[in-house]
Write a structure and sequence with these properties.
Blueprint lengths: L1 H12 L16 H16 L6 H9 L4 H4 L4 H6 L1 H17 L9 H24 L6 H13 L4 H14 L3
Helix pairs in contact: 2-3, 2-7, 7-8, 7-9
């Protein structure tokens, strides 16, 4: 049964450990990250509920990491060829396992990018609060990335709160 296989595959993907290239106090899983991204999406959508497609895309946005790993964004930024190869492999593996990430609009794609990177910043803030100073540069890169995205009014407010809180950590 395809649905059964798909559910098992996504559940397995949720167990993948993130941040394997960093020393962390807490190594979160893709499942924890996904729950946090969804929480942020609901905040970003503010007075309207996110679409079912956006929720579905968020639920599965890192599922393919069970086959390719959690390759740091900085590696993909430095090597467009690596990013292209990973994207192609992820798409192939998802297709091989009957997993279709729902189509989302450009506005929804922006919300998902904001939520994904805001979660990175929140994770960094928790680590910094526990004394992990190595996460300062990751936090700063996340802030820089968000400032280069098309603005999102609620996202900018959350970013401002994160930056203010960072000054006190």
């Amino acid at each position: 049964m395809v649905a059964h296989h798909m559910i098992k595959t996504i559940r397995h993907g949720n167990t993948v450990r993130r941040w394997h290239t960093r020393r962390m106090h807490h190594y979160e899983t893709v499942g924890e990250h996904t729950a946090n991204v969804l929480t942020i999406i609901f905040a970003l959508c503010h007075d309207r509920n996110p679409s079912a497609n956006l929720i579905g895309a968020a639920l599965m946005h890192d599922t393919a990491e069970q086959w390719v790993g959690d390759v740091p964004a900085t590696a993909k930024w430095e090597s467009p060829a690596l990013k292209e190869a990973l994207d192609a492999l992820e798409e192939k593996k998802l297709n091989d396992n009957w997993i279709h990430i729902p189509d989302i609009t450009d506005d929804e794609r922006l919300v998902l990018k904001w939520a994904d990177m805001l979660d990175l910043c929140y994770t960094c803030l928790v680590e910094l609060d526990m004394g992990n100073r190595e996460m300062a540069d990751v936090f700063d890169r996340g802030v820089d990335y968000l400032k280069k995205l098309d603005p999102h009014p609620v996202g900018l407010n959350l970013l401002d709160a994160l930056v203010k809180e960072r000054k006190h950590v």
